[in-house]
Specification:
Layout: E1 2-3, H1 6-9, H2 11-31, E2 46-50, H3 57-73, E3 77-81, H4 88-95, E4 103-108, H5 109-118, H6 126-129, E5 130-139, E6 141-145, H7 154-163, E7 169-172, H8 178-190, E8 195-198, H9 202-211, E9 216-220, H10 221-230, E10 234-238, E11 264-271, H11 276-290, H12 293-301, E12 304-306, H13 311-332, E13 335-336
Parallel strand pairs: 1-13, 2-3, 2-4, 7-8, 7-9
Antiparallel strand pairs: 4-11, 5-11, 5-12, 6-9, 6-10
Helix pairs in contact: 3-11, 5-13
Length: 337
Amino acid sequence: MRVRSPLKLLKPVLALWAGVSLALGAQAQAQTPASPSAAAFPSKAVHITVANTPGSSPDVLARLLGQRLSEQWKQPVVVDNRAGAAGILAADGLAKAQPDGYSLLVGADGPITILPNIQAGLPYDARRDLVPVVSLGQIDFVLVANPKTGFRTVADFVRAAKAHPGRINYASAGNGSPQQLSMELLKQKAGIYVTHIPYRGGPLGMQDVIGGQVDVMFIAVGPALPHIRSGRLVALGASGEKRHALLPEVPTVAESYKGYRSGTWFGLFAPARTPQPVIDAIAADAGRIVQTPGLRSELAAQGIEATGYPQRQFQTLVSAEYERYAQIVKAVGIKAE
């Protein structure tokens, strides 16, 4: 399957962004006399970029974490949303940021382990330019439909897709996003064809499913839950290996298609060459915070399972996910145009 490359449409923007980023990076480097030590960190505001729209699961996670980090560090922690291009702009911005610990990214599998296997010529090298710091959480998706479709189960959706190839459409958070890969896996297992409509973030796509402009989509459980409970969305199937704690009545897709599993993970990333003592300090503080009972409970209510794996374990996870998605992309046949 061919997907329209988000990079192709954004080359002029990326060129301008790269020039500005390099200029700002050089200016910041000239103004920074020395790398910060862990003991002095942080001595000013820390910026955490989220490659997703406000209200999305990673945005919620970043803001809950940022609030607590700010309280501990006695410094502002500013969360910036830089959505679009399936996370390319946000990841590239971090890759070109000053490597001092004051610029971080809540990154996910999309721009870190999926797009590098789909899109040649990315402006950053995810494995060379970005350093995994600490894992934060992971989430399952739920396949939702507009009630007017008449779909109540995964079987209903598959049956309609087989009867009308290409006429049913699905939204995603963008080309190369985990949501798209989730549907592509289901398409492969079920032997169906449905039309992909990429959006600039999952919540935007979900709003069009609610509005009836799009038929279905995979979306994180947290943002979808209020709309499922209100009846504006119908939950067809959960994407995890077991039924979701917040939707125990909803079967998993795997109950219909053995071996199916999808979802996403989030973690903090820093620019390469960030001093290891600073990375260790951030990883220790963030990892401890996400594992506190209070935050774990808040995240669970949003459909996010807190993890807090230390850096080495997180690096191993990211490397394994890179290879896993390489196999999935090859099997599904996704190629950028």
